[in-house]
Structures are given as structure tokens and as C-alpha cells.
Fold these 3 entries.
Entry 1:
Amino acid sequence: IAANRMFHTNCLLRVSSSLRAARCLMPNRHAAPKTVTCSHHCMSAFHKKDTEHRDANFGGPGYRTNKVFSSRSYSTSEAKLNCWNCKQLLDRTPSFFCDSCKAIQPPEEGASYFKILDCDYTFTLDTHKLQKRYLQLQRTLHPDNFSQKSVKEQEYSGSQSALVNKAYKTLLKPLSRGLYMLELEGMHLKEGTDSVADSHFLMELMEINEALEEAQTPEEVNKIGQDTKGKLADLTELIDAALHEGKLDTAKELLTQMKYYANIEEKVKAKLSDFM
């Protein structure tokens, strides 16, 4: 057991060293602006998204129009929407209910999850605010509230409630949130295509997995779990900085690492349940 602990400690120290080295390569997000390696297009698109989202949420330019965001550029096309029931112009985007007749509206095609849940377009969003908004929407959109309404309203209620659920689950966890932000930029992480994870990093992960399998006590498993949480916190900071600087390729590499550590975290939970 002593030998296993020494082996586990050494491999975690190497992973920690690797993450510290990665942080050193990242620019100081509070320093003066510097030229970044990504294209002008991706930088302008990233800042454009942030500005457009704030405008939509806080009544800025274009607030009274429906902004349909494409998956690649997050650009908008202005298409004013009217209530399906009373034909009045809908004042907000997205609109869940008509302000005039109070009828529930169908989901707006192309609306981002950030706009649906009225949260800032940022990797480090406020999850407490996210949960509060989610519960608020589900209380008003749940199909049980429309059992005595028309078939169309019941259908819209089910669609809106399902969409809010999907948006919440996607934005709640850092990994799925980051992957979704990359998808909005046209970048995807597909299964079996993690070429960005080099052999050295994969070897370190294999050693952590072996240490987890060989752990004999809850204390040993908890230690691996705490170290993994620390690595995920480090990666969260690095990914936020990369997205803030518009370095999407760097963010993609770091999200790949986060995916592996999230997998280890789930294995830790399963291992701890075996001791109960």
C-alpha cells in the first residue's frame, strides 16, 4: 500500500506540473491587450457575441427584435415576431408569453441557451443565478399548468419546458458548457478524435486510473478525488482565459483535458460507492 501511495503521489505531481506549465503559457487576462494567434474573424465574432447577448438581456440595440444566432458565427438576422394568438408584436427575445394576451409562445428557433436562461455569455457564469432562472421558468412553463388549455398551448408548453431542461443541463456543468460554446463557433469535440491529447498526458492519466483501481481505502480514493477537483478548477481558469482571449484552439485542447478529468471524477464517485 505504501508503494502504491508513493506511485500515486508521483503521478499526480507530474500532472500538476503539466497544468502549471500550461498556465504559464496563457496570457494574463488582466494585462494590457496583446495580439493573439487566432484570426481576426474569431476574435471579432467572440466579442460580438458577448455584446449582442448583453444588448438582448439589458435592453440594448436590437432588444425588440428576435436575434437568430447561427451555430458558427453567432451572427443575427433581425426578424420581428408576432404572437400566434393575438398577432401583437412580441417585445422580448426570447418570448415565453405574449405581454398582451398572455398566451404561451412556441420556442424561438436558433435562440442560444444563454439567452433562453438569461445568463451572461461566459464560461464562468453564475450557476446560482442559472438555477434560479431555470426553476422560475419551469414553474411557469410546466405542462401541468396547461392541462385545461388548447392543444396548441399544451404542445408549446411541452416544447418550451423540454428546451429549458436541455439548456439548463448543458450550461450547468463546465465541460458541457464549454463544448457548447465551441459549437456556437463551429468547433466540435467528437468521440475518438482526441488527437490533441498527447501520449505523455495520456500516460499520466493512465497512472492516475491505475492508482484509483489499486486504492484500498475510502481515504485513498478521496485523496484522488480532491486532487482531481483541483485539476478541474485549474482547467476552468485556463479555459476561461482562453475563451476570453478568443483562443478557441487552446480552449478546445483544454476542454479535451477536462473531459478526461471529469471521467476520473465519475470513477471516483463510483469507487466510493463501493465502500458503502
Note: The radius of gyration is 22 Å.
Entry 2:
Amino acid sequence: MFTGIVQGVTEVAELEQKTNLSTLALNLPEPARQGLQVGASVAINGVCLTVTHWQDERVYFDAMIETLRLTNLGQLQVGSRVNYERAARISDEIGGHLMSGHVIDQVTLTGRQEMDENNLRLEFSVPSTWMKYIFPKGYIGLNGCSLTIAEVGEQSFSVYLIPETRRATTFGEMPEGTPVNLEVDPQTQVTVDTVERVLAQRGLA
């Protein structure tokens, strides 16, 4: 599990594309490598990946075909900047909301609006399939970052970023048109799906 509090931004140092598989390497700083073991989980742009090996500061991961198809990891190149977060430990403070690292789809950044010197508003377009899980003041996972939803449209939503979020993630420099990994709040998803199932069983949906 992850907290949705991105620990840093780094660049893709190596990328080897094979048949239905990509191996990527990230240069992680020393604090992010403390206690690292083969098999450990790290969220890269919100996608839970497993450490396969490392050499010095360079840590390697494999991404399978479904991950490459469903997420923006399939569009990475050497030099691409990504958010990262180590898996949470029992003693960690959950400053965001619990996230699984299981991305369900991608959304697209369609608008950037500088509200003032301290607030940046980002708007995203969303496939209609997922809109039922998106509510004002609810949680959303975007490229591994836990954010609070502000406004919700028919097929869009917006979030507001404080300076620290802009500094610590790739959102501060992200241009319009960028695909972003989406993870909806699992509790919201379970609640909505359960209500839909109950209503359908009663012939009310």
C-alpha cells in the first residue's frame, strides 16, 4: 500500500524495450534506497512496480504488457521525469489516503490556471466509465499523488495544488495534453459498486 504522498521526482536513467516487457531504471537518492530489497514495491507515477535489482543508485523494475497498455509508463523515454513513493510501513503517517498502486486508466490534463502565486488549478478530462467514482471533496490518485477533488463536470474534474505539491511532483511542470495515471479511492469504488448491485437486485437501477 501507498500513502499518495509523493517522496520525490527522478528521471528514467535506462529503458530497455523487449517483447511485451520494458525494463526501466531510476536513479533514486540514498534516503529512498534505505532498506531496499529485491521484491520491494515502489510506486512509479502511481504504478506499483517490483524492484528486480539495483546497482549503486540505479534501481531496476520490469513493466509488463498490461501495465504498459493501461498506464503512461508505456510512453516513458530516457530522461522522462516521474513521481516515486516507497511502499508504506505500519508505522508511517498516512498523510494522504491509502492507495494500492493499481492504476485503472489514464486521464488527460486539459487545463492549467494560475489562480494566484500560491494556487494552481488543474483540470482533467475523464473517460465516462469512471465519473461515477468522482465526487467533490473526494480523494483521487493522479500519477501516485493523493489529491482532493474540487469541481466536477460531466466528464471532467479539477484539483488545486499548493506550492509544496508543485515542487515535490511533476505537476508543476506538466503541459496540457499530458496523460496522467488514475486511481480512484477504493472505498468510494466499493461503496458505489455495492449500491449499484443492490439497486439492480431490487430492480431499481
Note: The mean pLDDT is 91.
Entry 3:
Amino acid sequence: MQVYLVGGAVRDELLGRIVKERDYVVVGATPEQLLKQGYQQVGKDFPVFLHPKTKEEYALARTERKQGQGYTGFVCEFSADVTLEDDLRRRDLTVNAIAKAHDGSLIDPYGGKQDLDNRILRHVSDAFSEDPLRILRVARFAARYHYLGFTIAEETLQLLTQMINQGELQTLTAERIWLECEKSLTDGAFAEFLNILAQLGALSAISPALACNWSDGLYQQLKNRYAYAQSQNITVQPLLFAQATNSLTADDIKAVSETIRLPNDVRDLALQLNAHQATLTSQTITAEQLLACCNQLDLWRRPERFDTILSAIEINQAAPLSNQQQLLTAIKTARAINPQQFIAQGITGAQIKTALEQARLEVFQQYF
């Protein structure tokens, strides 16, 4: 039984990047052998095991055979006879198909180290085209390593274009598309990710609303916004994703949420920013407008929503609102108004809400 470090850990170590997780491939072993050594199998039909102490993933060397459509239509085949080279051949890119032995030596049958040195992303074999998810993965890797000068090999570009033109992306679920977007947001390279998808012609397949709005100008704007967010250590995904939908209509945002299955908090912030940004950034905002905004946001029960929108606007403008402290002070004062004071005055029923609204409006009129 031989154990090798594989995939992203080897790639990032060779690039001098921080290795966040380590995956291993085990050659010449059976599930029974690993179970006897205390490994915990993940799933019933997938030969991946968790190390008894480190909980890192150890996968039996395996091959995959396409059987059906989409990115899930694969039959996994594994046995002690599957070689390391067989296992590496099923991987997507040569830079992800490098293994490292315990003595530090590299096993690199497909030229991944040379492609790393030349900053090239190249598919390992024609089997690449069997998995449409790899279109998004290549775009994500190209975006993540764009700052290092990585480009996609010409033959891989041709294969990606062919897959896209054949409608392969239509087999991906909206939930799976979001997961790739989520990973790119975590990478801090979402502007590059969207731009690469647009250049490939893939953006229109996964989100027509985003594609129709895409332009070089928006790409540059997003790069600037994300650079500001990074400078402020802002990594909250709803805040970051909302920048990409900032110039869309509410209907477009809802369409994006259907084709890319946005989590509720991501979708809701995008819609709230769309509805209230113009009001909150206006230099002539009135007390009445601010009250309407607060009511629509249900700020009295959900005060965090207002803070989140202000943060989204700050990223968008690369600076806090000039009157941000004034807004926060006014809202804090208005939120301190207690309905009990009106009840103590003998006000009842629906009139309590009316009195509360008037009192809050009068507070805002002191500031705006």
C-alpha cells in the first residue's frame, strides 16, 4: 500500500501558496484494509476515507466511467490494481494531476509541473469533456490564479467552447452553479470568474440576466469594489455578491436567483440594495423617505439589515456614506422610542402604530 499527497495541496505548495487542506490517494489497498486500520468511510459507494486521527481524506486510487448525462453520471471503479497514473488521468487539469510521495519526490505523468511553471491550465485527457462542471472549475482556477499570470491552454479553450456550444452547462443544477460561485467569492476572484465565463460564452448559459448586463466597464468596477472590500477585510458573501447585481433590476435579480440558486440571505440583500440604495445615497434625503425605507426593511425588528446595506454601499462607493454617522444616530434615536409611552397616554389599537410612526418621523426631521 502506497500513499501519495495529491491535487490542490501539491499544486499550491509548488506555487508557494498556503495549503488549506490535504488530500491523499492510496494505491494497492482495499476498503477492508483501511477500515481495519481505523479509517472511516465516507459514503457507501465512494472509496474515500477519513484518517482516524487527522480526519484528512484518503481516497483509494480509482477510475471513472461515464454512464449518463451531466456531472453526476459517472460509475466509480476502484481496486488494488488501479495505478497512481490511472487515478491521476481522471483528474481535470494537469496542474491538479501531480502526486507527491513521502520522500518528497513528484509523480507527474502528465506534465503538470511544467504547466505550473509556464502558468498554463491544460486538461489532462479527452475525458475532461464528460463532466460539464469542469467548465466552471477551469474558469474558477483561471480566476483564482489570474494574479500569477495563468492562462488557459488553447486546446483547452477549444474544448471548453465546444462543450458550451453543445449545451453541456444546461445539465448543471442551479444549486451546483451557486457552489462554484461561492468558492470563487471565497477566493476573492469573483470579478475575474464572471469575466472569464463571459469571454467563454458560458455566462449567458448560467445566467442570461448577468450576461446581458456584463461589460468591460462593469468588470473594472467590480475589480475596484472587490479590491476595496479586501482592503477592509470584508469577506461576507452576500455583501460581495450584491456588487455583481448592483446595476440590475429587481426582476433581473430574481431571475439570477432562479438560474443560480442564491441562498435567501444573498438574494434578499441584493434586492434590498436595489430598492434602497438610491434613497440612502441621495444628498437630499428627506425624513419621510428615510422612514419609508426603514419600514420596508422592517428595521425596527431587524436593525442588522440597515448596517448590512450601508456596508454594501460602502463597497460600491469605496468609502462610507458622507452622512453615515448622521443616519445611524437618527435611527438609533428612533429605535429607542417605546410604544409603552403611548399606551400610558391612553392610546389604544391601531392608533399606537400611528403615534409611533409620527414620533419616529419627528426624530428623523431633527436630522434631515
Note: Residues 264-281 form the longest helix (18 residues).
